[in-house]
Specification:
The chain is an alpha+beta fold. It is about 30% helix and about 25% strand. The chain has two domains: about 160 residues, Pdz3 Domain; about 80 residues. A hairpin with a 6-residue loop joins strand 2 and strand 3.
Length: about 325
Amino acid sequence: MPLRLRRKKKAKFQEIAGRVEGEPTSAGGGSVSASPAPAHKLVFHAQLAHGSATGRVEGFSSIQELYAKIAGAFEISPSEILYCTLNTPRVDMERLLGGQLGLQDFMFAHVKGIKKEVNVYKSEDSLGLTITDNGVGYAFIKRIKDGGVIDSVKTICVGDHIESINGENIVGWRHYDVAKKLKELKKEELFTMTLIEPKKAFEIEPRSRARKSSEGKIGCGRGTLRLRSKGPATLEEVPSETKAKAIEKIDDVLELYMGIRDIDLATTMFEAGKDKVNPDEFAVALDETLGDFAFPDEFVFDVWGVIGDAKRRGL
């Protein structure tokens, strides 16, 4: 069977978002086996990144519920939380809370700080930035390319939440919709963004982890709680180092070809291809699972190469 993907418009991201964020699917469309969220009570700990006491967080099964629980622990509104980092209070985009939470992870919630309005002259087609989102409606800047258009505007920082573009409120948009909006802005014209930076402390002191307690512990702590925007959380084994690196590389390929980073999407693609024997089978499986993205053939070959390398190293 020739390698051929359906040529549908990429604009149909929203129609498949639920498929990507919901239950993972195998190449044949069935559910990937995963343990249901445990009946035991899991207890996590969190602090506000700019400084606070330690709060207990428990009783959640989705990202939205997790943010609500964190907000409740510190008596703030969930809408004040921009995103969370794991095991560091710094704005470290490599340690963002995404779809997985380790049983021993300590969360730091970054809340809204100063609002600012910036004007940007789009001198190039590419603005030189990568956008992600927190899974509950806030898109923010994950990476700024050195020497790019955005890099020249020093008031724009990694970690800034994008609230509006040219006066249009984009709260509730996914990161790929925001990236598409920015890409469609006309070259050689000025545009305006309203940004909210995370609240900062004057000095951040090292924080020790909360006192260990037997309450809420399960197993050896090597598992991860997989969170989803839709559907219940599931307790999964920690992926092998080879698999984790392969998924990270697929995420890099996504950014290269599509201008987005989405670890859940990368994981879905890995699961679709791990049991395939050639790129043609993988292309068919990818088309059945995520066909509406209309990935180019070159992209499929590059992702298959990553999966093939991982399989040769042993998953």
